Amino acid sequence: MDPDTEFASWAEEAWPALVRSAVFLGCRLPEAEDLVQTTLARCYSAWAKVRAADNRDAYVYRMLVNGLRDSKRRRWWGEQATEVLPEGRTGARDPMADVDTADAIHRAMAGLSKVNRDVVVLRYFAQLTEQQTADALGVPPGTVKSRLSRALAQLAADHHLADLSDGPSPRRAP
What we know:
Elements: H1 3-24, H2 29-45, H3 47-52, H4 56-73, H5 99-110, H6 114-125, H7 130-137, H8 141-157, H9 159-162
């Protein structure tokens, strides 16, 4: 298969998960889309390396996390919100669906430290393995485990998520 065609197919498939991951990492949707676009442009220019990587997902998510970190360093803080929302994508899910749930999740995730939020998003949302997450963040797998443990305990106790439960949360056996 032609490398350009292969990249285009892969990028189209990866786009939604990368955008959602960027949102969970703390970006607003427009920023997330810009970040993913930049990440994919970098992937395209280094497609031979990305394609040859032992773990393509970890490699790309590392690029995404690094791109986010770099963009926060040079972020322009003068941007202003608008009263008129842009038109949504045709055929897209109603953007107002599940607003309360999304808001509770975003608030709870915002309560995590940056490093813990990164681990939770990459491990559970992007569904990377512990080793892939460690590779993407440049930390040992044990660090991933300890950060996940602390983050999950914090999320379990978060008052924003308490209302989402359908009843008492199941307790682990001692």
